[in-house]
Structure formats: structure tokens, C-alpha cells
Amino acid sequence: MTANNTPAFQVQPNPFDSANCSPTDPATPHFDVMIVAIADGSVHTVDPTVTPNTWNMACMPNDGGVLGSDW
Description:
- By secondary structure, the protein is an alpha+beta fold.
- It has one domain (10-62).
- The chain has one helix spanning 52-59; strands at residues 10-11, 27-28, 34-37, 43-46.
- It has a two-stranded parallel ribbon with strand order 1-2. A two-stranded antiparallel sheet has the order 3-4.
- A hairpin with a 5-residue loop joins strand 3 (34-37) and strand 4.
- The longest helix has 8 residues, at 52-59.
- The protein is globular, with a radius of gyration of 13 Å.
- It starts with 9 loop residues before the first strand and ends in a 12-residue tail after the last helix.
- The relative contact order is 0.22.
């Protein structure tokens, strides 16, 4: 789960800089989107401004939560 006080995912982290890259957090090599695959077989892009709460609900679809308008 992504903490509420951190970005939902890392954008272009340097994998050799342990101070700025967490190997356990989601990351994208793109500077402006995270590309995600959805269970229905579609592929979508997610903006880095998505809130951690919306990101977490999207990653756990069986929690019964409603995705935010930033999805």
C-alpha cells in the first residue's frame, strides 16, 4: 500500500540511487504516465498526480472502494 504522504508511484527513479529509488514501490520509466494493464485486458495510462488513496483502491479492486475522480 502506498502511504498517503507519498506519491502513488515513482517517476523515472534512478535505480542506482538508493536514496531516491525504493525497489519495493511501483515505478515507471516514463516521465509523465504509468502504463497499467487492467483485468479486462485493456491498457491505460495513469497520471502521476493520482492520489495514493485512488491508486491503492485501484490496486485492490475487491476492497469495495470507489475510485476517485483522478482515475
